[in-house]
Amino acid sequence: MKIAFFGSSLVSAYWNGAATYYRGIIKALHANGHEVTFYEPDIYDRQKNRDIEDPPYARSVVYPGDEEGMRGALKMASGADVVVKTSGIGKFDSGLEEAVLEFRKSGAVVIFWDVDAPVTLDRVKNDPSDPFRRLIPEYDVIFTYGGGEPVVSAYRSFGARECVPVYNALDPQTHYPVPGERRFEGTLGFLGNRLPDREARVKEFFFRAAGILTDRLFLLGGSGWESGVPEILNVKRLGHVFTHEHNVFNCSNLAVLNINRQSMASYGYSPPTRIFEAAGAAACIITDAWEGIEQFLLPGRECLVARDGSEVAEIVRNLDSERASQIGKAARERVLSEHTYSRRAREVENVLQNKMKTARRS
After folding, report:
1. Which residues of the chain have pLDDT under 50?
2. pTM
3. Cβ contacts of residue 157 below 8 Å, gap of 6+?
4. Domains in the chain with CATH codes
5. What is the structure's pLDDT at 80?
6. Half-sphere exposure for 14 (CA within 13 Å, toward CB)
7. Which residues, at least 6 apart from 66, have a Cβ–Cβ distance to it below 8 Å?
8. Which residues contact residue 28 at a Cβ distance below 8 angstroms, ignoring those fewer than 6 apart?
9. In 207-285, where does DSSP find H-type helix?
10. How far is CA 133 from its chain centroid?
11. CA 265, CA 195: separation in Å to the nearest integer?
């Protein structure tokens, strides 16, 4: 299959948390013999903050971040068997969501791939005039970053023909155990950009725990945390941590913290990229509580679960390196056996092939 992806960025994770997810899925699709072109706009300084060069598993097309650039990219995608529009590109989202549907006239399968389904669904639910609402039934399939049955049911209620969760996973060639480094050494590390529906939860789960355990070093990676958050002496702010440094970060801390955004935690069944990155590196994961976590990691054996910052502090206080190592190894074994991008790609492939057969018959 020739697949055209319109997304935020494949080559830069700068203000783009979905980058690792895109890379894992597309790399696995390429390994199965599919030809992928990824179209991304030149916006938000992402090209100045690349994590990778153009990858061998996809053709990367960076188009000017204006309407003419968008139209040119759409023209280049002509002839694709499958056209994907992802959520949250950051510019001309509504225009692209409508424009890609034109490819259905030439027999292409057109997909909306929602990497932030809780936010999209809440927005559409609260605004009946939202232009995306009327387009939902026009897509052949809605893929989602996660969300389980709550997200599937919500999309179906808006008329989706089919909604299939495609969860985050591990690329074992990208995330794996490495020796730790002093620059990232700490008791508890957290990676995540500052976003409106994450900030309060970071203050609760990370900063509150750091304020309780003042004799331990907490590491904070991600963009946007330079000011306006609690000034705690034992919190070391790192700024943007490039994806090629994630393995070292995850392997240098006693444990790493996962904090879901509020929308993801509310819907549940939405394990973020960071969980699989950390598990792949055999890191000990402490995560906030959310429904469905046992589908991915078993609490108490493959991860540790906290309901608030005081519980995070209590877990860290009682955690030693031996137990942390045991939990990290168990998490790695679980994701390697059940949650790799190779498995996710096969799921995507099966759906697309069935849709292509239907398109040919119609």
Report:
1. 361
2. 0.90
3. none
4. 2-168+341-361 (3.40.50.2000), 182-338 (3.40.50.2000)
5. 97
6. 13
7. none
8. 171, 340, 341, 342, 344, 345
9. 208-212, 246-252, 262-267, 273-280
10. 23
11. 14
Please tell me the number of Cα atoms within 13 Å of 248 on its side-chain side.
Answer: 11
DSSP SS3 for 239: strand
The pLDDT assigned to 341 comes to 97
Decide: 12 and 19 in contact? Cβ < 8 Å.
Answer: yes
> How many CB atoms are closer than 10 A to CB 205?
26
Strands (E), the chain: 2-6, 35-42, 59-64, 82-86, 109-114, 141-144, 163-165, 186-191, 218-221, 235-239, 253-258, 285-288, 304-306
Residue 80 token pair: 């694709």
Q: What is the amino acid identity at position 319?
A: L
Q: How far apart are CA 305 and CA 285, in angstroms?
A: 8
pLDDT at residue 360 in the model: 58
Residues 285 and 250 sit within 8 Å (Cβ to Cβ): no
* The predicted structure's pLDDT at residue 160: 98
Q: What is the pLDDT of residue 261?
A: 87
One-character DSSP codes across 119-183:
HHHHHHHH-TT-HHHHHGGGSSEEEESS-HHHHHHHHHHTT-S-EEE----B-TTTS------GG
Neighbours of 105 (CB within 10 A): 8
